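Work Package 3 (structural annotation) set out to generate three-dimensional models for the target panel prioritized at the project kickoff. During this period the team completed the workflow that converts sequence records into discrete structure tokens, so that structures can be stored uniformly alongside our sequence database. As a representative example, we reproduce one entry of 205 residues exactly as it appears in the project archive.
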Amino acid sequence: MLRRPKPRRVRSPRDDPPDSSIPAVTGREDPRYLAVGHMNKPHGTKGEIFVWPLTDHPASTFSPGVVLRPGGAERNDPDPDLPPLRVSGVRPFRRGYLVAFAGVQDRTGAQQLSGCYLYREMAELEPLAEGEIYYHQILGMEVVTKEGRRVGTVTELYELRPADLLEVTDGEHQVLIPLLEQVVVEVDVGAGRLVVDPPEGLLDL
């Protein structure tokens, strides 16, 4: 479940590339920082910590010299009371990475970071490829059908298989719409609108 802005990308059905400088459509500007990882638990005794990646570009994000900023689970941005962390070492481990940070030299230091999210400035992230948008840009979009019928507003996005699901509500009813190109036929970031062509019965569930 995505409950904070993360630099996951999704292919847009639009032919034109999205303008990444357009503010997010949730009533606020794009965040300065996006979560790129979650620090799970210490590994070993030398300060390494297992990090679950929340980015499509983990190799360049968890790379020696990169500065990341920790924040708690209750925040959507770095905690100003926590110092930045500079990656000093990294190695793949299972479905994530074992990351070492400068100044974190033992298990006790790593334990203090356990449970924190890692944030990186949007300006430092790889630019979006043609036809991609960030997941957080979808939140708050108005959803309409090809015929112009209003379905509601995107309130949540769930990362599931075989397809991610958009939670859309109109204040009274809630529907889940699969994020598939044949269903989501247009994403207009500038207008804050998402056009769907739902299969018969989907909006009646």
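The first strand starts at residue 9 and ends at 11.
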